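Below: protein 1.
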Amino acid sequence: MLARLFTRRWLLASALVLLGAAVLVRLGFWQLDRLEWRRSLNARVVEQQSAAPLQLDPAALDLDLYSMEYRRAIVRGQYLPQHEIVLRNQIWPGDAGNQLGVDLYTPLLIEGSDLAILVERGWIPQEHAQARGAYLEDGTVSVTGQLRRAETDFGFGRALQPDPTLAPGEDRLEVWNNLDLERLAEQMDVELLPVYLQRIPEGPQSAPPYAAVRPMDLSEGSHFGYAMQWFIFAGLLLAGYPFFVRRQEAKQNKTNG
């Protein structure tokens, strides 16, 4: 039967079946790779969230903060409102239903250093995106939050509209589609850390900016199940194809006979 599959009549079909099976198997291994990535991410999140809060003072600034994503941190310093930005098209689930607004980000000059960290302070209404005077915080403040990488936030695989380039005469962009720390640092006169701080609210919030740190989904997802499905499809294709060929050959022999 195996030799019959590679006769001139069935050669092209057999090649296509083998190719299809190879693609299905590759998809299965891709899902297993995604599973390992998910397990690694979950382990990293658990490790960082279980660690003691980091005092983000000058002594801690030489640490590899980028590898500490999701770790709780406490920082003291002064906000730099002249470098403040907002992230457009953000939704807050208020009492009256979902409300459109922006997320407010303000750099914080870390006490005792010349470095700043961008702080996601929370959601504010759309109508306050340009006039944010009510949200100024003067003097030294202490902020508790969790460290985040900009490129891993806002949903995996989400397609975001690129931010525009500066128009002639503009020296900074205030309203952003994406959180691009490198580009943001270019329009600041202080050095910005490669991570930002997602503020964790302390107690009930009665007024904006409303901060929200949503819990991470630490499950393994459906990757293993999807992998098994692709492998089963490949097996069915390889196992079923010879029976199909045998049936077609039997029909032809019957007709010729």
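Below: protein 2.
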Amino acid sequence: MSFNFNNEERKAILSYARAAIESVFDPSIKPHIPEMNGMLKQLGACFVTLENTPGGQLRGCIGNIIAAEPLAQNISRNAINAAFHDPRFPKMVACELDEIEISISILTPPKSIPSPNDFIVGEHGIIMECAGRHAVFLPQVAPEQGWDSEQTLTQLSLKSGLPPDAWQRPDAKFQVFTAIVFRENDYND
């Protein structure tokens, strides 16, 4: 599974995600996207992130780590879920459509690493599993927050509902992945 989208394809994918959200408000909108040489029919996993503009405040973020459906379907479903089903935020209302920026992170399959020392900030997304709990950060989260590796792992522990040093426990397991990340503001003319 390999995804390599040019700038025009990335713009089309972002427009498709926006149309998926808009279709909830206006059922006459039928989101459509070209096949892009079959890439969007491949199994793929993504996260769709919504941020308020200006300011970049998180407004919703939903996704999948494991690919279980065609990428086009995953993008549409996660865009709708980020707008209307992220439990951290109220459902989006129509007047917010012009106030959000959409970004999409298309993920590679996760792979286990033997130690958190193998995690590379800014290159890897990371998944931690410990004591029956888990948490994930996309690759762009740590650099956006200004975190180093230890700060990222501490925040990951807290996100999973465990103490800040849980990442150091012997039963903590880690996986990493990379992502192709693109956002609407990258393509505004």
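Strands lie at 45-52, 57-63, 100-107, 111-113, 125-130, 133-137, 173-177, 179-183.
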